[in-house]
Amino acid sequence: MPNRALDWLRQAKRDLQQAQASQADERYEWACFAAHQAAEKAVKALHLALGQEAWGHLVARLFTELPPDQAPEIPTLLLEKAKVLDNFYIPTRYPDSHPEGSPFDHYGILQSQEAIKYASEIVEFVDHEMA
Question: Within 10 Å of residue 129's Cβ, how many Cβ atoms?
């Protein structure tokens, strides 16, 4: 079976572009979710590049499950940024994730800027490690 790591990384970069487009359209909840997806797919690409499949959606956990004998050292701050992104996985999409209101009522430019910045750093880290 061919290694699909580069396909996952390419899709991560495309998801990051979607996050930026969603932000430009003031669809901040989707910008946050797409940023999370970009980071998730990038880390899954790194798993594949190291010969390991990954399951799940928590970016921070995916980082910690990289094979310890092969994985690069993950900077602590990058792991913390992954934890921030993990908070955008469910609540950005489901109205019952908040006490009231739709997801779009709870996300704005600041959250989307942070999400895109953090996801960009994770995608860049993975891209560098896979180069």
Answer: 16
